[in-house]
From TrEMBL:
Record's signal peptide: 1-30
Taxonomic path: Bacteria, Pseudomonadati, Pseudomonadota, Betaproteobacteria, Burkholderiales
Keywords: ANK repeat, Signal
Keyword field contains Transferase: no
Species in which this protein is naturally found: Pelomonas margarita
Domain of life: Bacteria
Residue spans of the ANK repeats: 86-107
Database matches in InterPro entries: Ankyrin_rpt, Ankyrin_rpt-contain_sf
Region of interest (Disordered), ranges: 246-267
Protein name: Ankyrin repeat domain-containing protein
Length: 348
């Protein structure tokens, strides 16, 4: 069972040092920023899906070395703490993705430690994000994704699970412990609330397990492992339902921007986009489908698809959903983010 001790008080001198560094000049980087390095690690760690983790480990070690060099040569540089569009700092980005070595490298900076409890736009700190173990617990967050068609998206990401396991522990346990040691507040109640808010499609059984546990990481890992085992067993037995299931995973959006037009579009964040191959349909008419994709490590992991204009029968809607999921499996969208895309079909 995981136990967390109260974080030590930060020394006033650390804060004064951080404030002094923040007030200094911001120098241009001659190398990729920590955010860029973490984004690139998404594709590099996906290579671990073949069962080999040595190349992925080498890639993370190289990224961590570059972060350490930045801390040593330019302590307090803005790139070490600058948030992305979702309000996530490099420390948060590394924590949620399970990059323990990068977390250690970032924590060497006084400015990073001074803002260790900073919250992103959805109200989660780096420590809270480390408890989500997101690459290992996607099915707990999105139980609706456990279908044959939707596995086209998340199964390639799930296959790299071994990368995040170190003996009897996970990278996320190591990250959580490192953050607490560096002064992070281990607020378990807040972490549970943040996870439930980010995963509005979770089912009642998962919520009950989380409520009864004295931590978040263990019940999530057990819940997702059980769901994955059940999915793989049904897949091998050819017992998974196919059409006409159109219940999409529910994707939570962070607060602001309130204007949907300000949301990123697929063409803005994806470097590779496959063209949908329209199946033969026993249907005539016009319809517009709206897709919101949640991207993990550069790949769409889940997609919420809904009809926003026109009408479809259940079977045709399921066929079009499957077509869009097949197309999404060929996308490459570096980083971790949400994007929107609309598809209009006219069949005469």
């Amino acid at each position: 069972m995981l136990k967390h001790t109260p974080p030590p008080r930060r020394a006033i001198s650390t804060l004064l040092i951080a404030l002094g560094l923040a007030a200094g000049p911001t120098l241009a980087l001659a190398q990729p920023s920590p955010t860029q390095l973490i984004r690139e690690l998404g594709a590099q760690t996906r290579a671990a899906a073949d069962g080999r983790v040595d190349h992925a480990q080498a890639a993370e070690a190289a990224a961590a070395a570059q972060v350490r060099a930045l801390v040593e040569q330019n302590p307090g540089h803005a790139a070490l703490t600058d948030p992305d569009a979702s309000g996530a700092t490099p420390l948060m980005q590394a924590a949620v993705n399970g990059y323990a070595e990068v977390v250690d490298a970032l924590l060497a900076d006084a400015g990073v430690r001074a803002g260790i409890d900073r919250l992103d736009r959805q109200g989660a700190s780096a420590w809270m994000l480390s408890q989500f173990a997101r690459p290992l617990t996607l099915l707990s967050c999105h139980p609706q994704a456990a279908t044959r068609e939707r596995a086209l998206l998340w199964l390639p990401l799930q296959r790299r699970a071994a990368y995040f396991v170190h003996g009897q522990t996970t990278a996320f346990e190591r990250i959580g412990a490192a953050l607490v040691k560096a002064g992070a507040r281990a607020d378990m109640a807040a972490a549970k609330a943040a996870w439930l808010a980010r995963c509005p499609g979770h089912d009642a059984a998962t919520a009950a397990r989380i409520a009864q546990a004295d931590n978040l990481l263990v019940p999530l890992l057990r819940d997702s492992e059980s769901r994955l085992s059940a999915f793989l067993q049904a897949l091998r037995a050819n017992e998974l339902p196919t059409l006409p299931n159109t219940a999409s995973p529910i994707v939570a959006r962070p607060p602001k921007p309130a204007n949907p037009a300000a949301s990123p579009k697929a063409g803005m964040v994806c470097t590779k986009m496959a063209r949908p191959q329209v199946p033969t349909l026993n249907w005539r008419g016009e319809v517009t489908l709206h897709l919101t994709a949640e991207v993990h490590a550069g790949l769409p992991a889940v997609a919420q698809i809904r009809v926003i204009d026109g009408r479809l029968d259940a079977r045709t809607e399921a066929l079009l959903h499957t077509m869009l999921l097949q197309a999404l499996s060929g996308y490459d969208c570096p980083g971790d983010h949400l994007f929107d895309q609309e598809f209009r079909f006219k069949v005469q």
